[in-house]
Fold each of these.
Amino acid sequence: MAAALLEQGEDAFRRLFKYYKRRQPPPDLSGIVDFSRAQQYCKVLIAPLNVTSISDQDACKAGLQPVCKWKAYSLDGYPGFMFILDPFLPGWQCYWAKQCLKIYPRKPNVCNLDLHMSPEETKDLWEQSREQLRLKTPGKREAKSLLEKLRWVTLGYHYNWETKKYSPDHYTAFPMDLAYLSEQVAAACGFQQFKAEAGILNYYRFDSSLGIHVDESEMDYSKPLLSFSFGQSAVFLLGGLKRQDPPLPMFIHSGDIIIMSGKSRLFYHAVPRIVPNLEGRAIPSCLEHTTTRYNCSADTSYRQRDEGDWEICAKYLQSSRVNMTVRQVVGVGQSFPVTSDTEMITDSQPYSYHQDPKEENEHKRQKLEAAAKSP
Ligand code: OGA
Ligand code: MN
């Protein structure tokens, strides 16, 4: 009986994931929570922000509006989950999108293409793709550029997808601009000491999805997980601590920021579907390139190059979504456990998503309790 119930429950997330992922017939998107629309959802609450934690000047340096202007929400029943509606200043979303496409995939950062291509072949995805992308006719079947084959990039402590761990032996400098942005956002949400140590960037096309998972490889769950999205929209499913908790579907649009902290830091979530932006434009208007940021630059060749770069970004983003997730891996006073390679592999078993849900839950409860007790 219990097993049957569990199986039924387990289906709740999977069923909804499959429903939103399916192509024919397409799913009904009308009941999905949309924080950008002045609709009434009983679960949506206004979230308080720490308006004095960052100055307007510091916010501006990160490309953000003054915190007092941000619209932040939380959800009843999802403690620690926060949704900030696009707080970016005009012209800044395209800055971050361009970093994700042109700069962050560069070495020494790691990407999915490195798994089966030589460093020489993946030296500069941007340069290797730009002409091909520029000349592409939308809707026509043509060979994919490397940039269109890009699925993920890791930054800082590079996440190991096999062992599901970070290692002190595989760290490269975390991008300073993204660290600054993350630390400002974290501070505004009440996390003054947050350190951006690892990043996973996800690159989605219209047919991509991200499976049901929990981000539990970091060592300090008292630190939030930040997620920034640009380009086309997504359907995001937010479940609970247990795999069988039915998830709440919500839209994420370009510029929106999600913070997972507290209890929801370990909640199951997934992205079953990428959807065209709801304005029905090729590129959402908040993401449009504005030259105001660069008008002060007398360097016309720089401005021309920037315009050219934006043409490529815009072409890519017409059918894509880019998501940057930023994590603190090590808590204050924590250090990486000393493990041999073989230990690391066996050790990774209890963290796998396919284990007994009861045991998994107990494991998570203990970890959250430990996080709450830490300074
Ligand atoms: C992740 C993640 C969600 C998204 O990278 O862990 O959950 O919105 N991303 O793409
Ligand atoms: Mn995640």
Amino acid sequence: MKLIWLLTVAMAGVAALIALPGVLAEPGAAVPDLTWLALVPLFALAEVVVVHLPTQRNAHGHTLREIPAVLGLTFLMPQQYVTAYVLGAVVGLVVAARMRGAKLAFNTALFALEAALGALAYHAILQGADPLSLTGWMAVLVAVLLTDLISAAAVTTAISLTERAFDGEVLHEALRWGSAAAFINTCVALLVATLVLVQPSALPLLGVVVVLLVIGYRHYISLFRGHARTQLLYRFVDRTSSAGSPEEIVEIVVREAAALMHAERAYLVEFLDDHRVRCSSLVHDTLRTESLDLGGQSAWWLRSLDGDVVRHESPGRPGHREAPAPAQEPTLMSVPREGLAASLRGGGSTRYVLVVCDRTFEKESFGSEDVQVFEALAAHAGVAVERARSVGDLEALAEQLESARDAALAASNAKSMFLANMSHEIRTPLTTVLAASELLEDTELDELQGKLLERLQLSGGLLLSLVESLLDFSRIESGHTTLHEAEFDLPAMVRDIVDASLPRARRQGLVLEWAMEPGTPRLVTGDRTRVVQVLNNLVDNALKFTPHGGVRVDVRPYCDDGDRGVQLVVADTGIGIDQDDQATIFEAFRQVDGSSTRQYAGTGLGLAICKQLAELMGGTISVSGAPGEGSTFTLRLPLTADPAPAAADSDPSRQVAAH
Ligand code: ADP
């Protein structure tokens, strides 16, 4: 404010210097026909019918001052002109805008400077020539445009001083719209002045034309305003909908509400319950959110909860009395000079209120049009805040799900660890029992004891394989299995497995054969033990679920999109698996026939372990076939190959037979 006062004094000083007798020389040829007092109400009227032109972010006030200015320049002595100008315009401001304090002083000094410089320029160009000559018109045009230029520059300086930043856009807009309006008004005023001198009886007719012009002009302005308002709201919607996080949306709502309403402060108030609110506002350009306890206090903006926009005006508005600068930063609870508040629609069950306080320097108080704009703004803000809330809810839900998933994973890991520990603990005494039973076999036993021992060993063996499966499964699940890679002979490995299962195949009357396709590498690198475990399981299953016919193991290379490896296919002519079961048999404890009366023994863990191991080795396992037509299990492993293909065992196929 101090700077504004300084500017005011400087302008008044310059105006006084110019207007002092002697500086503004008395023009000899002026036509002092009109009494200067007659122009005072004209200047006052011009100030009252000020028209605001809204542009992108600002609104510029344009008076019809050019008309009395032209008449004054043409018919009055310079000092009379300055006096009539300042007096009339100040009366207009006090009556229409009830303006007092710094704003009034600033404007008075500005009027004085405008009038003095305008008169100086006019008479300097006119040099006593006829006011209605071409020189006279030029002098008027220059003087009036100069006046508008000074006005735009002073207002821009004042805004820049109060906002502590130069806004070139304001100056540009003011000049653009200001000079166009000033030019039209000056031409009309020159017509009036000419008629006053040439044919005063035609003045009423001209009055009608001027009134019609003003009506048309105002109509155009209101259309223009509507358009500008729509544009501003559109920008608001656009910005809030492109915001990502809830905080960003709240920040945009607060920032844009203050900017659009030309308010010094804006608050978004969220009601947590009947007494507590959360208030978001911009402090030093950063979003600050704080909780407030209303504790029964009443605030002017609370009335907006009833549904309507509330307009607040302190009894001592700045127009009447300059409000003393508050000791500390004003807050939501401090009483503003003026303010608007509206509850947000579309805010769901939570209640929100949008509050803007105190107009910035260049604006008058909030008018009824501002209330309309604010209402629309609140409606859009409601939608934006609702969106912010649902984004926030989704984020909270995602967080909950994440922690639930972490907890479930931890529980599952703990379960696997427990299973692994238990299986290990059970296996140790079990192997001792089996070892003891083997020792018992070598002692003198009668027939019954022999049979019981055999049963003991059989059940013990099954139990041991079950415990080992469990141990394997839980170890892999809890991530405690490591692979030991080394080079091994692939055909030899397959042959060993087939050879080991041959006696069983023979017993069941089945054909068991294997073959290796030419081109398959012989020496490969991988974890032989794990490959054996998977292949053994597949061959065991194939023999178990095949009542007649045979089982065939095929080994061949594969190459898919640059992925290379070895494919081990175990095909049988057994009972087969239907499509639905094929999708689930790789899950732990899944069996096609899960009933207690099932024909085939087993735990349902074998294929789950096979799948886990295959994936651990970077490969896949799959099944195909149909009930009654046998099953084909395909194990694909990226076993890295020795460049030299198998030679010794590359004979097309080798049959190891049954019967
Ligand atoms: P288990 O054999 O111990 O029951 P697995 O995990 O090895 O457990 O197999 C799961 C189920 O998949 C078996 O119970 C069986 O129903 C089905 N299955 C596995 N291999 C074959 C096969 N070669 N032919 C038909 N069914 C099979």
Amino acid sequence: MQRTLSIVKPDGVARGVIGEVVKRLEANDLKVLAMKMIHMTKAQAEGFYAVHRERPFFHSLTDFMSSGPVVVMVLEGENAIPRYRELMGATDFKAAAEGTIRRDFATDIEKNIVHGSDSAETAAIEIGYFFNAFEINPR
Ligand code: ADP
Ligand code: MG
């Protein structure tokens, strides 16, 4: 069993696909253990994406991620990390497989609807960035 962090990004919330994303997670045996809507400050978005601080898109990405509310979730399931990334699709929606969340809803390489952790190590760090132990409900 693995846990992973999911975010419906500001574009996903604005476009009204929170429910569609959650529906796909649940249909694929990814259980939601925690969920909340937050609006990150620029500094909070910079902290979250600190690994990307040297990338040319860092400023734009953190502006985007702090531009509106997001829905953050802790998911759990067998191989949850790679399986959720498969449901999301490639970072660039143009390269994402048919039927993936990004292929179906993203409009831009940056505005790509969802985030998912990329390893067990980053999942633990990312979950801890948004949730404390009392907010995560084993089931
Ligand atoms: P992923 O979200 O698929 O793990 P990365 O960790 O590489 O992708 O990048 C984090 C986020 O930064 C992406 O989801 C996307 O919003 C944005 N991003 C990545 N690459 C680019 C790029 N070349 N131009 C603009 N934004 C990008
Ligand atoms: Mg990533």
Amino acid sequence: MSDQLKRQAALHALDEIRDGMIVGLGTGSTAAHFIRELGRVRLQVAGIPTSEESRRLAEETGIRLTSFEENPRVDVTVDGADEVSTQLDLLKGLGAALVREKIVAQASERVVIIVDESKLVDRLGQKNVIPIEVIPFAVPRVLLLLRELGGAARVRQRDGRSFVSDNGNSIVDWNHGMIDDPAKLEKQLKSLTGVVDSGIFANVAHCVIVAGSQGVRKLQRA
Ligand code: 5RP
């Protein structure tokens, strides 16, 4: 069911795309639906992937790829999210692509987020940890600082080892709990030396397409 809803949201996002656009390609299972559908409709676009996984998928589906060297500005980015608040702030990064996702989103004229309704929350942090990408040398220091701020922090593992991001860094998952002021906490985390960025995306989404059992709706930033 949830996968069908993710596909519905992805299909609606195609309405945002026109021939000639530079399109940011998000990461995760919902963004993967979008990439497959975009490949299928054969619009004349060029994509900038936000992860190696999305790059591979875009190549398989025949989407022409470009880079910031060729195109430093992106027309529209379509990406998923782990949580979307009532203010349309986002928590992202359970898929570990948060740094490239944020870089591509910041380069974009328009950011469209696609989710199924299970991702909607009153306040960020309600269901998920905050993923934080950290330079490996700084990990013990950042863990200490996060624990001092409050809440358990652990290095993400895969197959019994520290997970390594596409950028060669570690991911620290911080169990902060409810976030009162996402923009403030995003800035605070970014100020810790060794932190590359966090999965808090405050004031980034222009529009969120939500697919639910009652249909698809589009939430616009006020
Ligand atoms: C990856 C992300 C994803 O967009 C987020 O985890 C949502 O993934 P999914 O669509 O599989 O639920 O931020 O870094």
